Backbone:
């Protein structure tokens, strides 16, 4: 009972196909994602169906309605993409760390503090040139996100302190600090709940297709995703991420930069999470208020796991969950359906993304059993 | 003033102690239970509904306990049989249970978030004649509900069982080294499932203490992160019953202080709420650093 | 012992049993590897039976089959003269068979007493009866003449004590047949002596013991019967006193292997690696390397010979930097690297072939390409932190070609290759940049005969290209074939430095702590021999 268990990332990444042409690689990767993600999604839909049936709803009608609400019209697609944006960031953040075998659950905290920081800086950007007015809050948000991850990162890299619990704890520490900071310093007068002032107009990330909410934040997220993909494949440190994540003892014996990798993985996840929070603040909600993150950090974990850290999988997964969130928000207007259905689907996907369906092992055991019965 | 804080700290720590003891048992069996929050909420709901339906607090508590045992067992099966990572399964389980309960409240009970139940019987307060008015002592032991006394009994009993019972030794062995234990013929997965059921049941009783304790109603946010404070407590207490329970009392004291200061004003409740979590990070850091400086093989 | 003419006579009582445990015609293959071929073994009740053979002769597979951990493809396990199908350890335990594996099932967080009774705790009124448990434990340890502090935490006790507890636990659980897989490999000589005495007492108490050992002194001294395996087949069974160590060694190796192999020596140049008074501790803080000094020159292979557990693992780890030295220094081309990180050492020109290929030598889940470039030299292929795909592909091809790795695509995972091919990848990677020093630890472990020849060639080539090579091997013949000089470690100290042409007996004597013949020390007769009650023979040590 002297030490915390050392967790490794809960699923293994798929091997990266190396030599094939890009299109083929993308197809292979997509196929793999479908294979890994298919079963968890189906199970989640079944669990949801049970809940729906139990409360007298027709699952097929509800799921159909959800699909229409998510993708039925251009404005609904816009809403889906807006909902995709924050979880795209958090999924990249989680995947970034998990690649190195580092199991952070602290992206939520980074997202929150990043959002608050961007909102506070953004509110004071009136009169700054537009580009600066956007970049300064985002920079602040990114650094704030990194700051949240700093203590767990140093503890992990230098003294091998298990990162799971420390990062989890920092989520709550950040939640408390953010609540305190808003109430004490940044509370906007005339607001019932605790919320900061709206950011200056020139600090907003402009919408791509007004009045839809999807903004340049999505473009930032997509660029980040491409950066993540290229960096993992092409950079030396990305290579070392893969090696450390896949074979830590080997990497140590080979003299790869294990400490640098661990530190970068945790800090990087924090930085990306912070940038995500900042983009969400500037692009969608334009301020920080209580409940700023609807567990986006945890949804990101689910997506990263489903995608096995593969960039295309991350994009597909983020859109899937974005669609659920967007559709869940409006479907209540049409059918009497609590939005919590979305949580049920999401949580179930998360659980089954890490479950191992050991059918071959089972059948082997049965074979052994029947053999024993033979005279 | 002192009496009020003591009484309030102890009342607030009862749900924590129950959940944290459950988490500690599970931890000793080798599983970090992130799902305590979900088990607590389940217990709070079932406790409230059944107490309301029967007008009997004991039946309510029992129902909560069983409901928690079921969710605890279910979560454990996902971890032990489907080899799901305990952290992810725990996080996911919290999301699902909160989703299901929120959904059922709205679709089944037609309420949004808060369930007022008619005929609900709250936990009785056991006043001890002669002691009730004694300063400090009265606040310490009088006017407590049965679950408080359950905690008082549970701490030494669990400590004793861990040390002296078959179950305890096998549980500790499984937690310390699953491969060695299973090679000795222990049914490690069953042992872990058992611990998961106990964790769920105890955490659910903690939930019952919330819904049938002071307020006498159910709210979908009533656990308010207590499952994670309980997690912090058993990390802080290194999963030993007495230190874990004492950590809960400390955190309960923080909570009582915070409520007190809120009414007095001047200090932020949010800051105080972070103390348990900071404490855990400090403990983990110190333990980790000490262990690291002992080992001969190092990362380069 | 009375004899029944045929086996598997139903109802034959224990008194009539000839074969308490054994194997009849057992064959077991793993893919193309035939681990056991028609193996026959018969262990009489109440005897100590040794199973000997070279690495890969099929001993461990046989033991696993006898304990039900593995099932034969054909043939049968025999228990009490009866052919049975042993489908699981549970079935073996029911037949009162116990196995002590090299990986001990001792739980460090529990006390030794808790470890002993775990799973079969004596209970009284729902409570574990610790008084009874302790009494039984003390009876057990007294009955075999060992002294154990049962209340001590297992984490704080030596591996030797833990092993004794593990053996006594089997007895506690009613085991009557004890199977031990290389029990003395991890023990210091005095501890091994105590263990062998323990085995003899168990036999005297009527139990049956099977053990695997590479230390022929032990085998000849303790075993009542010896079964020799070679290449998965039973060669013969010998009774105590019928053979001496030399004869046994010849049987194990076989006639063909006794002939000298081809030998080539290097042409040493300047001194590259200097090891100066290095001491190091193992994971349990036991001193394993004690003031070791030697030098290695460019173009030279220095062999390191030692009986397992005498400090060679620690020396290899200290050289590469996985383990920190407690004192002393290491210099590479005059510059101190004794405190440098693994990374710095590698950048200074140190290459490393790990004895643990699966965890340290390769990342089995990563592609051959990734495995071929995973060194700090990676940065030579990068510009501004970015890898050039063409440069990487060229380097990968260079590495794989250099070692003539047989592979399909460089994007295949390393796990898809055979053991020998995997090791070639390692050697290709570690020798591609002309390292100044190559630390090669058990480079041919688990590699087949043809693969071994190729790995030797790669080592010689690196030597001829100017590397100073430190070669660790369990195979004395391998050391003699490749080394220019051989340093022998005994109990963590340098017992002597011999020329590569030294005979097996010279090396063996030093490995056992006997002084080398050339230094004519009158005190050479200090009783150091690990095997009790056995006259010292001129040849010694690890024969295979």
Residues:
């Amino acid at each position: 009972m002297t030490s915390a268990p050392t967790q490794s990332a809960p699923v293994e990444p798929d091997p990266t196909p190396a030599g094939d042409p890009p299109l083929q690689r993308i197809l292979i990767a997509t196929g793999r994602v479908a294979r890994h993600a298919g079963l968890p999604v189906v199970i989640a839909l079944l669990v949801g169906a049970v809940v729906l049936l139990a409360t007298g709803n027709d699952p097929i009608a509800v799921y159909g309605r959800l699909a229409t609400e998510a993708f039925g019209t251009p404005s609904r697609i816009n809403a889906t993409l807006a909902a995709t944006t924050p979880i795209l960031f958090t999924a990249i953040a989680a995947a970034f760390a998990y690649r190195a075998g580092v199991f952070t659950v602290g992206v939520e905290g980074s997202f929150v503090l990043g959002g608050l920081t961007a909102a506070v800086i953004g509110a004071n950007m009136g009169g700054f040139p537009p580009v600066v007015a956007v970049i300064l809050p985002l920079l602040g948000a990114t650094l704030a996100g990194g700051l949240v991850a700093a203590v767990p990162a140093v503890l992990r890299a230098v003294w091998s302190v298990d990162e799971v619990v420390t990062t989890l704890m920092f989520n709550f520490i950040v939640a408390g600090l953010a609540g305190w900071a808003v109430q004490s310093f940044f509370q906007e007068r005339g607001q019932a709940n605790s919320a900061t002032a709206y950011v200056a107009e020139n600090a907003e990330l402009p919408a791509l297709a007004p009045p839809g909410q999807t903004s340049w934040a999505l473009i930032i997220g997509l660029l980040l995703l491409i950066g993540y993909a290229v960096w993992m494949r092409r950079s030396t440190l990305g290579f070392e991420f893969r090696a450390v994540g896949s074979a830590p003892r080997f990497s140590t014996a080979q003299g790869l930069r294990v400490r640098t990798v661990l530190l970068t993985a945790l800090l990087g996840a924090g930085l990306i999470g912070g940038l995500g929070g900042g983009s969400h603040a500037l692009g969608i909600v334009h301020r920080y208020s209580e409940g700023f993150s609807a567990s986006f950090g945890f949804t990101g974990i689910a997506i990263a796991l489903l995608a096995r850290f593969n960039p295309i999988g991350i994009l597909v997964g983020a859109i899937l969950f974005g669609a659920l969130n967007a559709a869940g928000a409006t479907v209540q207007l049409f059918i009497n359906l609590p939005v919590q259905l979305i949580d049920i689907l999401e949580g179930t996907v998360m659980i089954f993304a890490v479950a191992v369906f050991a059918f071959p092992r089972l059948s082997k055991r049965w074979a052994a059993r029947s053999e024993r019965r033979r005279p | 003033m002192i009496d009020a804080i003591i009484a309030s700290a102890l009342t607030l720590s009862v749900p924590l102690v129950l959940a944290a003891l459950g988490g500690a048992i599970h931890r000793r069996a080798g599983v970090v239970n992130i799902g305590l929050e979900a088990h607590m909420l389940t217990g709070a709901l079932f406790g409230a509904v059944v107490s309301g339906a029967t007008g009997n607090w004991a039946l309510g508590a029992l129902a909560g306990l069983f409901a928690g045992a079921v969710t605890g067992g279910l979560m454990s099966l996902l971890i032990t049989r489907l080899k799901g990572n305990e952290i992810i399964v725990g996080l996911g389980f919290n999301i699902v249970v909160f989703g299901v309960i929120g959904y059922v409240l709205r679709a089944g009970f037609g309420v949004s978030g808060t369930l007022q139940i008619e005929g609900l019987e709250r936990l009785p307060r056991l006043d001890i004649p002669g002691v009730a008015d004694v300063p400090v002592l009265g606040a310490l032991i009088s006017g407590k509900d049965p679950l408080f006394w359950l905690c008082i009994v549970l701490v030494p009993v669990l400590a004793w069982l861990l040390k002296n019972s078959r179950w305890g030794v096998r549980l500790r062995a499984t937690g310390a080294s699953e491969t060695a234990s299973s090679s000795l013929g222990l049914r490690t997965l069953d042992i872990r499932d058992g611990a998961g059921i106990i964790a769920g049941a105890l955490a659910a009783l903690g939930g019952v203490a919330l819904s049938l304790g002071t307020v006498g109603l159910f709210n979908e946010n009533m656990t308010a992160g207590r499952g994670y404070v309980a997690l912090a407590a058993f990390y802080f207490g290194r999963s030993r019953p007495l230190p874990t329970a004492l950590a809960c009392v400390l955190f309960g004291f923080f909570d009582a202080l915070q409520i007190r200061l809120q009414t007095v004003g001047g200090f932020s409740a949010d800051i105080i709420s972070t103390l348990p979590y900071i404490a855990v990070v400090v403990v983990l850091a110190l333990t980790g650093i000490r262990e690291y400086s002992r080992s001969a093989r190092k990362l380069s | 012992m009375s004899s029944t003419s045929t086996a598997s006579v139903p109802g034959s009582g224990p008194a009539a049993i000839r074969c308490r445990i054994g194997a009849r015609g057992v064959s077991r293959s793993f893919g193309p590897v035939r681990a056991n071929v028609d193996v026959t073994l018969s262990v009489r009740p109440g005897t100590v039976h040794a199973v000997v053979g070279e690495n890969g002769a099929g001993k461990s597979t046989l033991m696993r089959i006898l304990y039900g951990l593995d099932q034969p493809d054909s043939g049968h396990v025999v228990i009490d003269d009866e052919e049975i199908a042993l489908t699981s350890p549970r079935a073996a335990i029911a037949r009162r068979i116990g196995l002590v594996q090299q990986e001990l099932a001792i739980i460090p967080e529990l006390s030794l007493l808790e470890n002993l009774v775990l799973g079969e705790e004596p209970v009284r009124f729902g409570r574990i009866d610790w008084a009874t448990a302790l009494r039984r434990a003390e009876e057990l340890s007294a009955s075999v003449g060992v002294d154990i502090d049962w209340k001590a935490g297992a984490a704080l006790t030596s591996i030797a004590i833990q092993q004794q507890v593990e053996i006594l636990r089997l007895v506690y659980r009613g085991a009557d047949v004890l199977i031990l897989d290389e029990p003395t490999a991890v023990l210091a000589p005095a501890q091994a002596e105590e263990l062998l005495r323990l085995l003899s007492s168990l036999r005297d108490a009527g139990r049956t013991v099977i053990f695997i050992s590479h230390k022929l002194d032990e085998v000849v001294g303790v075993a009542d019967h010896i079964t020799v395996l070679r290449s998965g087949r039973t060669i013969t069974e010998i009774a105590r006193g019928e053979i001496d160590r030399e004869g046994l060694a010849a049987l194990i190796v076989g006639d063909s292997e006794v002939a000298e192999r081809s030998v080539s020596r290097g042409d040493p140049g300047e001194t590259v690696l200097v090891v100066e008074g290095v001491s190091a501790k193992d994971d349990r803080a036991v001193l394993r390397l004690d003031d070791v000094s030697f030098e290695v020159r460019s173009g030279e292979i220095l062999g390191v010979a030692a009986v397992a557990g005498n400090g060679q693992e620690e020396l290899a780890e200290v050289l590469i930097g996985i383990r920190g030295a407690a004192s002393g220094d290491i210099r590479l081309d005059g510059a101190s690297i004794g405190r440098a990180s693994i990374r710095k050492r590698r950048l200074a020109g140190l290459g490393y072939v790990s004895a643990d290929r699966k965890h340290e030598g390769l990342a089995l889940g990563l592609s051959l390409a990734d495995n071929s470039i995973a060194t700090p030299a990676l940065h030579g292929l990068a510009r501004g932190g970015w890898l050039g795909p063409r440069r990487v592909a060229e380097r990968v091809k260079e590495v794989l070609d250099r070692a003539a790795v047989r592979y399909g695509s460089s994007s295949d995972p390393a796990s898809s290759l055979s053991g020998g091919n995997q090791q070639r990848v390692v050697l290709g990677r570690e020798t591609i940049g002309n390292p100044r020093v190559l630390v090669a630890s058990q480079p041919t472990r688990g590699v087949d005969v043809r693969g071994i020849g190729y790995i030797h060639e790669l080592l010689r080539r690196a030597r001829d290209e100017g590397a100073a090579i430190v070669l660790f091997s369990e195979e004395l013949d391998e050391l003699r074939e490749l080394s220019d000089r051989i340093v022998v470690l005994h109990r963590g100290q340098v017992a002597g430095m011999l020329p590569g042409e030294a005979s097996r007996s010279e090396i063996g004597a030093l490995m056992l702590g006997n002084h080398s013949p050339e230094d004519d020390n009158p005190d050479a007769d200090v009783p150091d021999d690990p095997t009790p009650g056995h006259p010292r023979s001129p040849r010694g040590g690890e024969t295979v």
Remarks:
- Chain C has a mean pLDDT of 84.
